[in-house]
Amino acid sequence: MTHPFILAMYRIKNVERWIEKSLNETSKICDEIIILDDGSKDNSLQIGKNCKNVVDIHRKKNLTFDETK
Fold first, then answer.
1. pLDDT per residue as tens digits for the range 7-61
2. Which of 13, 38, 41, 54 has a CA positioned 20 to 30 A from the CA of residue 1?
3. How many CB atoms lie within 10 A of CB 48?
4. Which residues contact 25 (CB under 8 A, 6 or more apart)?
């Protein structure tokens, strides 16, 4: 049986206090992680860049929050 490919997406802003632990736990079950950053001013992006499963980081300020997408 082949293992399914699992991709996680994080939408973040100033979450350095918990992002490292969350990314490490998510990496245990996900093959790749994409981060959508809404203008973090802390170390959130650097922590994300250091995670081996993070394959892409998109940074944009004032992202529209729309749960239907």
1. 999 999 999 999 999 999 999 999 999 999 988 999 999 999 999 999 999 988 7
2. 54
3. 23
4. none
